[in-house]
What we know:
529 residues, alpha/beta, Nucleotidyltransferase, domain 5, six-stranded mixed β-sheet, two-stranded antiparallel ribbon, 14 helices, disordered C terminus, exonuclease activity
Amino acid sequence: MFSTLGLFRSLPCPHHDSCSLQNCLFSHSLNTPEPRLLNLVPTPAPRPQPVASSSSSYPPVARVQPLPKPINIIPAKRPAISPVKTTPASPEPPRKVQKLGPTQKSTTVPAAARTESGVPILRVNAAQSQVALPVRQTMLKTLYEHFCVLYQQLLPANPSLAADHALKQEEEVYSKSTKTTYRHAVIQCVAILKRRPIPTSLNDSSVGTEDEIASRAEAQKQIECLRLTQDNLRHLIHTVDELQKWGYFIDVPPEEGGTQPSAEGKIVRCDRCPQYYLAKRLEEADQCIYHWGRPYMTRIGGEKIRMYRCCQRPVSDGEGCMHGPHVFSEKDAEALHSRQAFSFLQPSTPDNSTKLDVAAMDCEMVYSTGGLRVARVSVIDGAEKEVFDQLVQMDDGVEVIDYNTRFSGINQEIHSQATLKLAGIRSALDQLIDSNTILIGHALDNDLKTLRIIHHRCIDTALLFPHKAGSPYRRSLKDLTREKLGKMIQTGSATEGHSSVEDAAATLDLVRWFILNKAKSAILADVAP
């Protein structure tokens, strides 16, 4: 033990006579004064104390005031937490047990992630899925394998088609099923996939998920059931000012027409390259190096570049990718009138009960020594029934320079079957349509110009569905048909070209789609508050 320093000998023991310690640190002397501790509260001045006698064994110490008794702060006890009991009078149940509605099913997010075998990976929240995620992934793999078999002819050109449709199909089945019916629903879907015919193009009816196919079938049924008449089309007829704005000719030029059917031997400008040349027949024509595809704007490395659709080469390269003869076309009304005369359709009379109220028209053109000439005319009625489809001979003195087969679908062998010249074609058309007929087409002004017809009752799908950049830009018929109708047209090769009957039917269906969808939107907008 350590020896004490005696620092507390001048302080009386707080236990006094009851102290049981053998070596107490405090004093047990009766003469030991009470200590006076520091007090934070002001106290009165101390009274004078008598001086201790010299016989005391301890030296006198200054008497200080005692400290106030310490205050023991006892922390308050926390009240016991009792479970919350709900009563019928409670406005709502406790938050922890309150139901917030049924758990929503997770949504499949199509992702580019694939396994090594190409099976897409299901990207969903496992905690929110009512069906175990491994089960759904297994069913997705089964769907993917059957879509691969179904799309075996489409996958080389569309490698992600099977994976995308498998993801969509699995989500469709999951959204309509429960935990107990999910697996059986997938098996039924696989059985339906096995019965589908193998598609050869994206336009086939067997391409897509079950909901997509059903939706397309329903939309097509509605379109086919809608018969176009003057009553439901009258509000879509373009005004004369609108037609003139988009390049339609609204009057017959005053000069005599048809005086110069051919421009052979004259200086004209090539449509394919910005050169002037002497118009010649095919066997004498000079060769032209050109691009048949139109330029478009794209972004490469953060820089905007104009590229040709035909060869994917920049416009700045200049050099063409195709070789062929120089060709020309004319835009001026007087120049076209001098090649072949313009005229109005015959006026409507009460006796013309056999004339069509509505007709969709499309033409195919070829290049000649007289410019761009019509080589095929197709007309269908408002019920999409083909009523006219004829090839057109060139007029006397006019020779074909280029059949433009990539777009017209006409070659020399096919064109040799033509029996009527334009005058005969016009006479045949006069038996079908008159000035009261509503003509429907896409960029219909070009067809009317090559037929040399002036008509004011027109519905142009290029105007119904305008380009976002406005005039003079126009959306292509192929893009509109794919976007609005879910169909692919003009899929022929460079030797097959387009079909004027198919294009005319597409314009008719686009007008039907416009009536069914835009009319509904207008009605909803009118009744909205």
